[in-house]
Design goal:
alpha+beta, Rieske Iron-sulfur Protein, 3-stranded antiparallel sheet, 4 helices, about 20% helix
Length: about 210
């Protein structure tokens, strides 16, 4: 015997119509979902969009004083360092300033809002493109005194040809690199999130404006 499924109310013809209506609605719903998926998917920035310069938000709440993290923006390594109070004092030490090629950041390697003694939006946090201005190597983060040699107070050391920068990315005299490390457009959207690739309101800096990356 064949089992027959019947509607709880009405005749067989009505049950069939109800079934067809339900089936049609279900198929329409699946079709709509399939149509919407590419649209929903397109709302998330693709990797090529990020590489082209779309802003990226970076959560820095786990970053401890004296530490650095590295992220990618425009396919460039971007260093985000959290400087200690002692490191900030070193950045203003006249003895070290006398050894720098461009201590006042006179050459356009940063936006106006980072043209200060700490070269950043907030003194504690430093955001910089980690590409040596000599031949494009990636400098090493060497924050500990004496880690590179006698007299070293902490900063960035390029292992390719020996260029040196302080913890504000300012280049020392007598090394191959001609310019300070470039500072990208950035601002803080909260106390623990920095947005790289977007200026603070009212600012129009573009990384392409710098002398050299």
């Amino acid at each position: 015997m064949t089992d027959t499924v019947q509607a709880p109310h009405g005749h067989d013809g009505e049950s069939r119509r109800d079934f067809l209506t339900l089936a049609a609605s279900a198929i329409t719903g699946v079709g709509a979902a399939c149509t919407l998926w590419p649209l929903i998917s397109s709302m998330e920035p693709a990797q090529d969009v990020l590489a082209a310069g779309a802003p990226v938000d970076i959560d820095i709440k786990a970053l401890q004083p004296g530490q650095q993290m590295v992220v990618l923006w425009r396919s460039h390594p971007v260093f985000i360092a959290r400087r200690t109070p002692d490191e900030l004092k070193t950045l203003q030490d006249q003895k070290e300033l006398a050894q720098l090629r461009d201590p006042d950041s006179g050459i356009l390697q940063q936006p106006d809002y980072a043209k200060n003694w700490h070269r950043s939006v907030k003194p504690e946090y430093f955001v910089v493109v980690g590409i040596c201005t000599h031949l494009g190597c990636i400098p090493e983060f060497q924050p500990k005194p004496e880690s590179v040699g006698p007299g070293w107070e902490g900063g960035y050391f390029c292992p390719c040809h020996g260029s040196r920068y302080d913890l504000a990315g300012r280049v020392f005299q007598g090394v191959p690199a001609p310019y300070n490390l470039p500072v990208p457009p950035h601002h803080f959207v909260s106390d623990t999130v920095v947005r790289i690739g977007e200026n603070p309101p009212g600012e129009t800096f573009d990384l392409n404006d710098v002398e050299q990356i």
